[in-house]
Amino acid sequence: MNWYELRAHEVEKKTNTxxxxxxxxxxxxxxxxxxxxxxxxxxxxxxxxxxFLSQFKDFxxxxxxxxxxxxxxLGEMVDAVxxxxxxxxxGVLGFFxxxxxxxxxxxxxxxxxxxxxxxxxxxxxxxxxxxxVIGDVLKFGSGDRIGADVRIVEAxxxxxxxxxxxxxxxxxxxxxxxxxxxxxxxxxxxxxxxxGTMVTRGSGIGVVVGTxxxxxxxxxxxMLQNAEESETPLQIRLEQLGKILIVVALALTALxxxxxxxxxxDLYRMFLAGVSLAVAAIPEGLPAIVTVxxxxxxxxxxxxxxxxxxxxAVETLGCASVxxxxxxxxxxxxxxxxxxLWAGGDTWQxxxxxxxxxxxxxxxxxxxxxxxxxxxxxxLTFGCLCNxxxxxxxxxxxxxxxxxxxxxxxxxxxxxxxxREVLAQQFHILKEFPFDSTRKMMSVIVKxxxxxxxxxxxxxxxxxxxxxxxxxxxxxxxxMSTLYKNxxxxxxxxxxxxxxxxxxxxxxxLRDSDTIHNEQEAESNLMFIGLQGMIDPxxxxxxxxxxxxxxxxxxxxxxTGDHKVTAMAIAKQLDILPEGGxxxxxxxxxxxxxxxxxxxxxxxxxxxxxxxxxKLKIVKALQNRGHIVAMTGDGVNDAPAIKxxxxxxxxxxxxxxxxxxxxxxxxxxxxxxxIKAAIQEGRNIYxxxxxxxxxxxxxxxxxxLVMLFAMLLxxxxxxxxxxxxxxxxxxxxxxxxxxxxxxxxxxxxxxxPRHPKEGVFARGLSWKILSRGFLIGFVTLLAFIxxxxxxxxxxxxxxxxxxxxxxxxxxxxxxxxxxxxxxxHRNPFGNMYLVGSVIISILLMLVVIYYEPLQPIFxxxxxxxxxxxxxxGLSSIPTFLLVGSLLTGGKDKKKKKPVLQQQANLK
Length: 907
Ligand code: ATP
Known about the structure:
The chain is of the alpha+beta class. The protein folds into five domains: 9-42 and 108-221, Calcium-transporting ATPase, cytoplasmic transduction domain A (Distorted Sandwich), CATH 2.70.150; 48-100, no CATH class; 285-305 and 678-742 and 759-897, Calcium-transporting ATPase, transmembrane domain (Up-down Bundle), CATH 1.20.1110; 312-332 and 540-670, Rossmann fold (3-Layer(aba) Sandwich); 337-535, Calcium-transporting ATPase, cytoplasmic domain N (3-Layer(aba) Sandwich). It is 48% helix and 18% strand. The strands form four sheets. Strands 10, 11, 12, 13, 16, 17, 18, 19, 20, 21 and 22 form an eleven-stranded mixed sheet that branches. It has an eight-stranded mixed sheet with strand order 8-28-27-26-9-23-25-24, sandwiched between helices. Strands 1, 2, 3, 4, 5, 6 and 7 form a seven-stranded antiparallel sheet that branches. The two termini are 60 Å apart. The protein binds adenosine-5'-triphosphate. GO terms for molecular function: ATP binding; ATP hydrolysis activity; metal ion binding; P-type calcium transporter activity; P-type sodium:potassium-exchanging transporter activity. It is found in: Cell membrane.
């Protein structure tokens, strides 16, 4: 079907819809059932069985299974069954970890799935683009991604970029008129908007004529949707590290086996011990736990109202050193209310509450009737005419539908008895040139009841001043002289100084012969009418968030399209702008090269009157100074800067699809404080990963060393293979997971941002791992030797004592891993998951030791009470010996030679 050939009413008829009311919910649901969701087909995910089986593909697991076969062949059925059981349990755990990680990634995708605005039952509502059906009426504006193939029926300065489909990156203008001809190519179908393309300017309405695979995109899209699943730099580094660790562990294991055999140990026992040791020493679970820690962290972030779109951002978050944030709506509440009006040298105050349309006008002490003051009345009327917002009463409350700046103007007009409905009876809007943040204004062409046409423009005062040829002063039109310009400027400064956002209004009558083709023609030679100043109170939580960021070594920069004076006043209220801090304006910025900007960017705290295009320069200059930059944005023009920054942050509520797609973090509540919370969580996740790496590797070092030392000293095996496997599964696995869920250390936001190239083992971690690991191995061996010497005939007993010491030493050490400082820095019961997993591990250990049926399998004997004293004493040593001693490692050393040490720490 060539939809472009049809006229609007024919499209309506063919798709059985109504452009004014849309589909009914029932009809939409029925069509959805019949034709399926509006989705491109994706590659199938592996089934649960495949994921489960893939757990056993691991090289070490195969080695272990090989060992099982050897045990079985040698008739050691108990060994064989126990190993198989452990391999199975390990596989099941791995399966659940992987599934969990996958599920949360999927949930994340759902959350970031595109939304569209559709007309259903006569109301515009937001629905997931997946739910679109043929006949749905769609509304789209600048920054939206088109959700399905749409025949446009209304277009206002509509430009769409279709590069996803045609490869052509220059946006094409779209119109609603039918096109004749049967062979019009996709690139020329100017009344169609295609799925996946993006609105760069203007707005439009259209009827859905193709969904899912029946769209132009669907036809070329066996290529998948951009479902890239990226690994984080840390995951990649850990994978590399894992490979090195495998080699080291294998080499050490081989050494243990060779020495053991040389010392006369039984070949089969040594073989099995070697395999078990290799399995235990290789942290094969590490990547899975990292993924789980990352994705659980991401879930926590969602609870705190931020969505991480790309996992690597979680790590980068912790490195952020500068946040560049928009002002309006992010630092402020975006609940605007006009409080002051200025026209022709007079100022009026307006009282009121929020968008409630009642309030009184005063000039000084005297109440005035706005209908009686021409300039004031025009200011209010025009502010309301050039406007798309409406205020509706819902359950006794007045709620805004539309942009808050515009809502404030509507509310102010309503206080003078001018509602949009009343105005609509007198005035008819012929054309609109929508607001965009580069032009910083919006205009409409209006026809009044007598058939006269005129232009109304509203926007940033300095911009309107530049294009006004005259001004309304008192009741008269005067040419715009420098004198009047200065008057307006100082009025703007007075309003701005009170942190008010100012919007100017201007007007131009049109003669019958005047034709207006574009916004430049409309927005010229205007008559300046006046100013409306509105409050936009800061969000209460932002000041503290800025302060906390400062303590964390993160600087906050405000970037706003608003006037310099207004921006400065708000920046001061929020403590963003220190004494002597610089404020740079867009016009200045335009003259500067990136290098120029670099030289002043460190002392600049506010960028005012900037266009989104300038943001890229700011990001570049900061990055050149070595900063890791978080940059917020919401519009189409913000996308390049969001993309170029290290952490692109998009607004969840006001953000366009394009900004969201470019971002790595979405703020569900558009709130600056949420960025801080996300950074905090990012830092915490990274610290948690360090915590369990520290725990796992120190444990592994301990396990290898106890065996190695024993072989070197010509002692019998201190641990039997099955015990080693048990330790690997229970003592290592559960608490490590719990560490991944740990809360942040108190001072996590008082540390400087992490250097992005910092290695995992920086800040003394390798020292901690090796020293604690060494001690764990040492005390385990000591426990074994003492017990063995007391009773050389009961090897099994000494082995059980060694086993218990190893387990306890690790379980005590795990509490030390919670802190970068020492075990005494944190309440040991602060992480209940950890306490729970430690208790479970201890109980399981006691079961293995005291439960008779398990004793032959695990080669254990009941330990006598007095020996527990020895075990507990020895197993406490690795954690408590080093507390506060000279051996605390990296932290203390760093103080002495900070620069060198830090550099050495950078991998
Ligand atoms: P931020 O602080 O997030 O940059 P902003 O609202 O100040 O937000 P823009 O939205 O780019 O930045 O607006 C720039 C300027 O354009 C505003 O300071 C205001 O003077 C003017 N403006 C804002 N909204 C409108 C509108 N709907 N119609 C006309 N002019 C507007």
